[in-house]
């Protein structure tokens, strides 16, 4: 029984490791930071055309899971129905959230007269307050010619209407038929279809106008005892010093006279202090919530914000040393159990203000149904992972077969094999998929580059292009995964750049998976436990063994070695790395090639390492940003059109 339980945990660990590799989360953070910079420029342009009658002192603050590192990386959702022409796919990208923060200060037109706009008053719900207009503000605003509401309190509707104006400005740049603008909670939300692509895709932009609030409303949180030691005193001090916000939404998402405390700044500070594994657990939980729990019982009563609160509570309770990849299955079960308990009790304490119950206004019948749905997911994790494996395809690796599919295929084809043999077989098939994908994009680059119209090439680059084609040797066998473009396909300079970006991002992201897979295979063959981190020498030796066995193209070999240097922050010449790796490989591992084949391959790799064209393309921080920009052309074009 214990052996079966151990095998089950190993199985779940294996599937979850390759379903959402860690580097995808890391790369998504970089992508989102680039996008947020572009959106901030867009919002600045929009605010110049808006009049906010309350104040002149305002500042933009990017918010949401994009900058928290808690958003699901860009992915495709596969619908169970639809045609085979691509319409059954929908492209999912994280929402773009922007908060315009206003000071509680009104400045007269003369620039001298000033007054505080409101004083805060508590309500029965500790998460909400009222904003009582000051007599000084009322007097000054009337003198300035503003028409004020009859109520003594500032209502939320006036502010959300102003936010709607900002979203409408953004939507004007999009095709009219693609716009959907509405109020969702405190945010004015616009969903815009991304034109120019066959699959369904949308860009959602939320704008919230909030007031800055410098009085800290969560004193218990500051002095709370934390079993895990997270967050530490330094981080707690940072959170308190950042101050919180007041956003225009009342209990149950209603508009009225009650405003809600927002801890956006604190949530970002806390989220950015989490490990990649903690973020991964949260992201997988978001996928389980959407594609399993809410598929069973569609409801708005269980949101990603609820999951974020549960995550923070768990991070306080569970020591950081327990948040490791081998424990990921146990951590997901713990997460589901915690959520289940909150639903059964009808109480999810707000992380910063635990007196506030986030389920207070949810009907008990909804809570019971959601609890049944969460329990069903917890008790059927194999089915849950199978559902996610079929539905969710992350854009960086979606052309590779899923580990779940390969594992089941290996089980069916080798009924008498041991569990370890099944894993080795599955990993071998997975690495072959990664290599095929890399070779596919290499072939697309060469084919599209060769077909470029002469007018699209500059004379200065013609010689470099010829050299690149010579250095990037291309496999000719269909077994090696090269897929030539269809006859008559139109290749433009833009498409070539796009293919080049996809090829490089495939090398970047899939090399990470390749490293995981070949190292896991090596560990399994040596009958040792998989380690969360491998020494640089071990990694290079194992990778060289795999590359020599498969006679990988020289440019790919040079890239992988350079990428390992880049990721391990080892500032070493790629030529030296190559020589050291070959020496280690020749010393410890006999090659499957003949001596003549091996020497020919070794010479071609050494030549590629010296080639200036290859050297120009090797990975670095600036390259990383540039390639991320290149690989998202449709989304970026929409943003640039708005700008």
Q: Given the C-alpha coordinates, what overall shape results?
A: elongated
How far the N terminus sits from the C terminus, by CA atoms, comes to 61 Å
Low-confidence spans: 50-55, 82-87, 166-192, 194-198, 454-492, 626-643
Helix content: 40-55%
Number of helices: 24
Radius of gyration using CA atoms only? 28 Å
Strand content: 5-15%
Largest sheet: 12 strands, mixed
Number of domains: 2
Q: If you average the pLDDT, what whole number results? A: 75
Strand segment tally: 14
Quickly give the structural class. Answer: alpha+beta
Tags for this model:
643 residues; alpha+beta; 2 domains; twelve-stranded mixed beta sheet; two-stranded antiparallel sheet; elongated; disordered C terminus; Mab-21_HhH/H2TH-like; MAB21L/cGLR
Outline the structure in words.
- With 643 residues, the protein is an alpha+beta fold.
- It has 2 domains: 382 residues, no CATH class; 228 residues, no CATH class.
- It is 54% helix and 12% strand.
- The protein contains 24 helices and 14 strands.
- Strands 1, 2, 3, 4, 7, 8, 9, 10, 11, 12, 13 and 14 form a 12-stranded mixed beta sheet that branches. It has a two-stranded antiparallel sheet with strand order 5-6.
- β7 and β8 form a beta hairpin.
- α9 packs across α13 and α19 crosses α21.
- The longest helix has 33 residues.
- The C terminus is likely disordered.
- InterPro entries: Mab-21_HhH/H2TH-like (IPR046906), MAB21L/cGLR (IPR024810).
